[in-house]
Amino acid sequence: xxxxxxxxxxxxxxxxxxxxxxxxxxxxxxRLPILEWAPQYNLKENLxxxxxxxxxxxxxxxxxxxxFAMLSSVHPVFGLYGSLFPAIIYAIFGMGRxxxxxxxxxxxxxxxxxxxxxxxxxxxxxxxxSNSSVLGLSEFELQRIGVAAAVSFLGGVIQLxxxxxxxxxxxxxxxxPVISAMTTGAATHVVTSQVKYLLGIKMPYISGPLGFFYIxxxxxxxxxxxxxxxxxxxxxxxxxxxxxxxxxxxFKRKIKVVLPVDLVLIIAASFACYCxxxxxxxxxxxxxxxxxxxxxxxxxxxxxxxAVLTEAFGVALVGYVASLALAxxxxxxxxxxxxxxxxxxxxxxSNVIPSFLxxxxxxxxxxxxxxxxxxxxxxxxxCLISCIFVLIVIYAIGPLLYWLPMCVLASIIVVGxxxxxxxxxxxxxxxxxxxxxxxxxxxTYIFTICFAANVGLLFGVIxxxxxxxxxxxxxxxxxxxxxxxxxxxxKTEMHDSTENWPPSKRTxxxxxxxxxxxxxxxxxxxxxxxxxxxxxxxxxxxxxxxxVFLNAKKFSADLMKIILKESDSSQPLDDVSKCEQNTLLxxxxxxxxxxxxxxxxxxxxxxxxxxxxxxxxFDYTGVSTLVELYLDCKxxxxxxxxxxxxxxxxxAMTYYGDLDTEKPIFFDSVPAAISIIQSNKNxxxxxxxxxx
Length: 692
Description:
By secondary structure, the protein is mostly helical. The protein is built from 30 helices and nine strands. Helix 3 crosses helix 19 and helix 9 runs antiparallel to helix 23. The longest helix is centred in the N-terminal third of the chain and has 30 residues.
């Protein structure tokens, strides 16, 4: 008995604690995404493309690391460290499998404000003679990287606080037009900051409100001091980069490995500069000495955290927003999910930990991420492989970059920002989809170039919320009475349309209210044909609210919940529950429960009719959500039809998405859509019989 009791207790103990272990396991996988995909990594299929992508990415990381370090007003070697450590940390904690984290132009530009304010160039003469024991660099350079590291540390702490507060759920406030305008404006700032290198002009550091215009005013005032050699070399570099990258993009399907034009240009320019001694002969500015190795960790100066609070907030918000947009785009492209809160954790740690290793603020970059797409990367292994090559550069190849001209490096940066700069083309799309979003884009862009990226982002969010709140009071929604009238109309017109059909083809219509919580923005009813050779269920879902960025995400989730619930539910119900859920409005049933009509069919095909009579206004996010839902349902073999759409909605959806033009999807009324669905079904059956 004692042994049996002990055995029983051990079983109970195991039952009590097994779920606890499973919870811990799931928590670890959720917070360490590498544990989710690494055990499933296919060496045979993924290692080769990841290796090729990693090599190409390493070239970009090195070039951008050197450039963005100069953009951040610190020594170039610290950009190499910023290309190494954040990428490793994000590969462990990040969920974007095709996101390349490292140095970032926008965060470097923001941190440069703090560096130039706290350690200006005028203080260089005071410390230039005293060298430190860290890589032989001067105290001046260490003071500067100390400020940049402090910005990175505090920015990462802010991101971690946002993770703890679960503020990732508030990212719906960041609409696509606002993010596009902010990143385009910030890219314009970065190009402006590189003008002095492209033209070879000695220029003091200019920042602050309207600094963008002051820089160009200074350039035009000193246009005679432009170095012709630097200008010609910059133009030649930009032409070569653009042409070769366009050719790589055009023929990437025919060639297995694209030409690493960035690497070739760096080697060729460094060799030419060394052979012709351009630094001394023409006064061309070069990168200079790159020390070997990685110094021991050192904490950033905590006594200046209060002085860099503004820049830290800018780094935290701008870096996260730009990185999240890339992660979500990657997830949408390759069919996986991204947790917004987990991205706060990943980028927070990618800023906090490297700040102890002399790193500047980091984030994901569009150019590097697009490079991973084009070279066929599969996972974050590509980023880890790139870190190996960056490490080789730090310990072995770094000193050979001494002769790299700064104008060539600036050209690489400008061409790398092409993806952000061509977002100007989105203006035509916003104009055709929603002119208010077009106005928000323009105003956000203007605020960004006049002030800063974080100011433009804040203005865009506030402006978007204010406009939506102003439009909502004028919006009209469907009432319960309207829904009943619509249901009665469906009943009447469906009955009239089926009077001339043979008895075997008449349809029973069942209508039931959607099982959504109060306040949801969709309401559903279902129309199911009587049991025939092939059954077809028609779901009618009415949109009762405007569809904007505030409710687009919930609308998408609610709608997919209805579709998946109905398509997956094949368990038989008892007669009482059947009668409660399905009220047959057909004249043949007279409200009685029809068991034959409510039984599931294994070959059932679903059609979805969206009644848009209550969709009184929309924005770009709402239109994109509708189009994505249409394409998602189409991939699931669910036919989608839209009824009672306004002319502006039809125009916006047609312009935005790749909709099916072979058959109509927009109808004047719900009964018209249902009639077309039934007609298509009958034609399909007739063609099947003719083939037999």
